[in-house]
Amino acid sequence: MAEFSLIEKYLSRVTGQCEGLELGIGDDCALWQPPAGKQLALSMDTLNLDVHFLACSPAHSIGHKALAVNLSDLAAMGAQPVWCSLALSLPDADELWLAEFCRGFAELAKQSGIALIGGDTTSGPLSITVQVAGLIEPGKALRRSNALAGDLICISDRLGEAACGLDMLLKPLVTDIKQAKPFIKCLEYPNPQLQLGQYLSERAAGHACLDLSDGLASDLAHICRASKVVAEVDLEHFSGEHLPKNLTQQQAYQKQLAGGDDYQLCFTLNASELAAVQRQFPQVQVIGKMRQLASHEVTPHIEWLKNGQAVALQLKGFEHFSK
Amino acid sequence: MAEFSLIEKYLSRVTGQCEGLELGIGDDCALWQPPAGKQLALSMDTLNLDVHFLACSPAHSIGHKALAVNLSDLAAMGAQPVWCSLALSLPDADELWLAEFCRGFAELAKQSGIALIGGDTTSGPLSITVQVAGLIEPGKALRRSNALAGDLICISDRLGEAACGLDMLLKPLVTDIKQAKPFIKCLEYPNPQLQLGQYLSERAAGHACLDLSDGLASDLAHICRASKVVAEVDLEHFSGEHLPKNLTQQQAYQKQLAGGDDYQLCFTLNASELAAVQRQFPQVQVIGKMRQLASHEVTPHIEWLKNGQAVALQLKGFEHFSK
């Protein structure tokens, strides 16, 4: 089957429309007229086989996740999705796989109101890159550098389930399938927090924000550095009751604080905004507070607290190329 | 070396500025304010190892080409480059390779006035995806569907050198290195025809246009189909004098008409525009003419002419997944 007809057949089902789109897939470029007065929020993320997903995961979930992790970046700025493009490298033209992948991608695209306007399908090891664009009012983006000393630190929902799901996928022989299902679902079907991000941005309720892709310990540290503050995080919020019962407390910390792939938002706000945010988004939890660097401190960082006392936590992180 | 510092170190040298860029690399999204009244032309292309380039090619050339093939899509619409993002999958953190890749990418970015505003660096088989955006006046894009019967068919420069270069790279033992150099350079350093594309679009001199990535036979057929016309191409323009002397005429046709990777433009215009275009761009050649479908013809197609007579040409094309 020729590349052109492959693209035509499956991606044309994904497309959809966005305002201002004059020309979609099929020419050298798409043509799009941006709306007056808005800024574009732009992000690009790649998923590779055996790095970001496993061969055993359904193609439908890979299509979902490839778009979801990108939408999550838009959510973290408070932007409204508008268009995306998709680069798909496939080792062979497996039509069944492609159909399912496109179905997963298209369902989330429709649900989040984003149009696929272009892309590329090439032969190569399985790899997916998505570019997303979102709209936002100038000055309203939730930047990492916007946290203030005194801000509460919040997360959009509990953490660690995706990391548990990955463990279960990697150890199929010792996994209770029924118990594993919801955790694997968290891993394979992350839910980008678009509504929350837009709420925080539009009402100016949130200050700094990012999405948790690499784990809280590593991601929250980005906010600390960009905003030059210290994050005091209270470990009592991470008992891990929602995680499998066989985890030790240390393992539960590891999953929640250093496990990746949650794609929840971590954000800061003034305490006066909390009640209004939680009325709209009851899953939102406070996990700590930002403070100024003390006079003897040089480096912005995270402080883990137990009963008000700073404790040392040994967390294993994950970084590409960190061999 | 951690992913973050890798990106910081090399990609930050590539960046540069574009008008309206409020926030570049380093947050969940870049933030960019599009200029009022312009359209965006958007394209995304992937290069994979052993499909689009060979391991023996210098990293500098791969960086150049990854951006060049995308800029070529902007050229084909007549758009002016504004920003790009880069997704780079690397099997390991080879700093020397990365430094050279970024140098090749950055040099072309600077030369063409495009800013790198974001991207992703991941672990995986070597693969590069670039998204580009260009600006264009509404209604001025050189679409494939704009060719008219009676239009002259032009190419921006002679063809086939890149395909010869690929042959030479694949057969190093029988290749005369000195003779091969300019051909391999055409393959590894395509030169996106941005000025010509913008000229054709701004002065409304060009009608349909596309860039020749897969070969004239396959690409020009896209214009025929989109514009519902027949292309009469005169083979006398393809004697192949500029190609290696040991090629037969049939081999020279193959390289020029079905060889990929030239990244020249193929476009149509009214004959009255030709002289002005050639004054600015003396390499531009006429290769044929568009005509209406005859009453007995159903399908838009290309007709190869020799001394005014249609001839059958056997050309081998290349399409991904066409196993």
From TrEMBL, chains A, B:
Residues that coordinate or bind substrate: H52, D261, F318
Record-level Gene Ontology MF annotations: ATP binding; magnesium ion binding; thiamine-phosphate kinase activity
Biological role stated in the UniProt entry: Catalyzes the ATP-dependent phosphorylation of thiamine-monophosphate (TMP) to form thiamine-pyrophosphate (TPP), the active form of vitamin B1.
CDD domains listed in its UniProt record: ThiL
Family (UniProt): Belongs to the thiamine-monophosphate kinase family.
Keyword Membrane: no
Biological or metabolic pathway of the protein: Cofactor biosynthesis; thiamine diphosphate biosynthesis; thiamine diphosphate from thiamine phosphate: step 1/1
Protein EC: 2.7.4.16
Enzyme class: transferase
The PurM-like N-terminal domain, residue ranges: 26-135
Positions of Mg(2+) 2 binding: D45, D73
Biological-process GO terms, alphabetical: thiamine biosynthetic process; thiamine diphosphate biosynthetic process
Keyword Nucleotide-binding: yes
Binding site for Mg(2+) 5: D214
Protein name: Thiamine-monophosphate kinase
Note: Reaction mechanism of ThiL seems to utilize a direct, inline transfer of the gamma-phosphate of ATP to TMP rather than a phosphorylated enzyme intermediate.
Binding residues annotated for Mg(2+) 4, in chain numbering: D28, S43, D73
Residues given in the record as Mg(2+) 1 binding sites: D45, D120
Catalytic activity: thiamine phosphate + ATP = thiamine diphosphate + ADP
InterPro entries listed in its UniProt record: PurM-like_C_sf, PurM-like_N, PurM-like_N_sf, ThiL-like
Residues binding ATP: G119, D120, R144, S213
Native source organism of the sequence: Pelagibaculum spongiae
Keyword list, A-Z: ATP-binding, Kinase, Magnesium, Metal-binding, Nucleotide-binding, Thiamine biosynthesis, Transferase
Binding of Mg(2+) 3, residues: D28, D73, D211
Residue runs in coiled coils: none
